[in-house]
Amino acid sequence: MAKDLDWSNLGFGYVKTDYRYVSYYKDGAWDNGQLITDDTITLSECACVFQYAQTCFEGLKAYTTIDGRIVTFRPDLNGERMENSARRLSMPVFPKERFVEGITEVVKANKDFVPPYGSGASLYIRPFMMGTNAVIGVKPATEYQWRVFTTPVGPYFKGGAKPITIRVSDFDRAAPKGTGHVKAGLNYAMSLYAITDAHQQGFDENMYLDAATRTHVEETGGANFIFITKDGTLVTPKSETILPSITRRSLLYVAEHYLNMKVEERPVPFEEVADFAEAGLCGTAAVISPVGKINDHGREICIPSGMDKMGPVLQELYDTLTGIQMGRIDAPEGWIHEIK
Ligand code: PLP
Ligand code: COI
Prior knowledge:
By secondary structure, the protein is of the alpha+beta class.
């Protein structure tokens, strides 16, 4: 039976659910994995994850569709990205097929926590892995855990679909060469100072520019950018140092094939931002969150679509993407993975 939670008023926080999944890696191989109920982890004080931050993670969601099925959206791509994250952090790869099996088992076991259709909430799925044995010389661990937990969540930004205000960050989103494309704990740890500072100054997020020249738009702390030009083209930054968002890749396809829009994935000079008609953040947690204002060291750039509500083109993209995810609109082959 569905849990008695106030689904429509959930924020983006942690709610403990009944089951999680763990697979252990030892002597060069992953074990078969299992569902467990214990939400705690006990490790050596010298575990590689604590000393050298050898950890990476993923994020995806389970939804209840209009016809009552439970589905996830393109989990194979999260599995693939986690394989890449593991390789870059010298961790053993947890195969993407097993990734999909693992998240399927955990969602199925926690199905009473999947928010109902129409509530605006979803079940956030957090796969993660870490080096667990004691390592004091700087080198990778030899033992690992691959885990998944879930938590029901509402909107990532307070205020739901209201446009947010962001600021150009003076800090870089830490992306040591080659880690821009991975979801690694260290990249996020190094962004915590910047997000705390942004919040203290009254901003919802940071806009990171490219670290080398500080002339081009990269991404925010937890989402990629999408922009709409005055003639209705979807523009999104192309960069080797941002996370390849699955939401963004899906939106490019949706814009082109469902909405007959022109799309451009290319470097975006910061100076061009003031010319766009609409701006938004996209990601699993952010879905599409409209940006109303960008503060560049005191200079305010007001996006023409305004601070009241999402602009019309982003709204159409939002409706189509969420329509596909919730089963109101036919999905491209392979995008929807049903949990049954
Ligand atoms: N960029 C960063 C830094 C993120 O943390 C996320 C969230 O996962 C994204 C972009 C969006 O990626 P996706 O659409 O795959 O969730
Ligand atoms: C996601 O959208 O899944 C993210 O990982 C963003 C943030 C919560 C880290």
